[in-house]
Every structure is written in C-alpha cells, then in structure tokens.
From TrEMBL:
This is Thiazoline reductase. It comes from human gut metagenome.
Length: 178
C-alpha cells in the first residue's frame, strides 16, 4: 500500500512543487506533465526500480522527442506564411491570365456575363468565375466599376511561367515540401 499509493503520490507532489506552475496554455501544460513523468521515471530508475519494458502498458513517450525548438518553429512558420503568400499570388495571376486571354481591349469594361460567355464556362462553374472575379477585384488585380470589370494590362504566358518557376524556387529554398 505504501509503495503503490502513498509514496508515489508524495513523490509526485514533491516533483510538482519544484516545477513552476503559472497559468499556462494547454500545450505547455501537457509538456510540463510529460516532463514530470520523465523526471518520475528517472527518479524511480535511480532508486533501483526495474525499468518498464518499452511497449508495455506503462511505457511513456520520451519528452525529449516532443520538445520543440522555438526558433526553428518560428522560422518554419515564417517561411510557410511567405510561401503561402507567394502561392496565393501565383494562383491570382494565373486566373488573371486565363480571364484576360479572352478580352479584346485592355481598360475596356466587361460585365461578368460577357467574360463568362467569352471563356465558354459551363453553367455549373459560373459561380466559381464570379468568386474569382470578386477575389481578383478585392486584391487589386482588376477594377470593378458599375458592374464592369477592367483589365489594365495583357499578361503574356512567359510572365506567368516565370511566376510559377519563381514560386517553386521559393518553396524549395524554404524546404516547404513538394
């Protein structure tokens, strides 16, 4: 009874008193609990208790595998945000390219119906084109005045291709995966 209940509880309380307990987010709380478990395991090992076989019911996940290096996490997060911004720009310019291919004049207003008719979009996909027009307008790629959209320049395929090559390089240089 003493070795199974009271003594482990007393030691656990002592270990917990040595750890600062501010009000903390869940992930920090979980990390602290894992660190306490690891400290408990080291203490028991030091007192001569046998080690629990890995994979048994009582095995634990080593906390050192869960520790995160905050600087690398910040750098990875920043690289990911930068990569997403580049990817977003690539998508917007790609849609701009395909929509402007069917216009005859730049700086001439076209209604969404005219653009959709020129592109030859199936009826099921018309709402998607409307959303793209809205997104392109809200990101200042095109202008919308009195229900007409204005494309201010013609983009050539070589420009679009360069954007995609540059975007791919950004992702590869930041090690963001494929």
């Amino acid at each position: 009874m003493i070795f199974k209940d009271e003594w482990p509880c007393a030691i656990a309380k002592d270990i917990e008193k040595t750890v600062v307990e501010p009000t903390e987010p869940t992930l920090q709380y979980i990390q602290r609990i894992l660190n306490n478990s690891h400290a408990w395991q080291l203490l028991m090992k030091g007192l001569g208790y046998p080690e629990i076989v890995s994979g048994s019911f009582y095995s634990y996940y080593p906390s050192e595998k869960l520790l995160r290096e905050s600087t690398s996490l910040f750098e990875k997060s920043s690289a990911l945000l930068g990569g997403m911004a580049v990817f977003n720009n690539m998508c917007l310019k790609t849609m701009y390219y395909y929509l402007q291919q069917n216009i005859k004049e730049v700086n001439k207003g076209y209604t969404s119906d005219e653009l959709i008719e020129r592109i030859g979009v199936k009826a099921d996909f018309v709402p998607i084109i409307h959303r793209w027009l809205h997104v392109l307008n809200s990101n200042s790629y095109i202008r919308n005045e009195e229900k007409e959209y204005y494309f201010e320049k013609k983009m050539h395929y070589s420009e679009l291709e360069k954007i995609w090559v540059d975007g791919k390089n950004v992702w590869e240089n930041a090690n963001l995966g494929t």
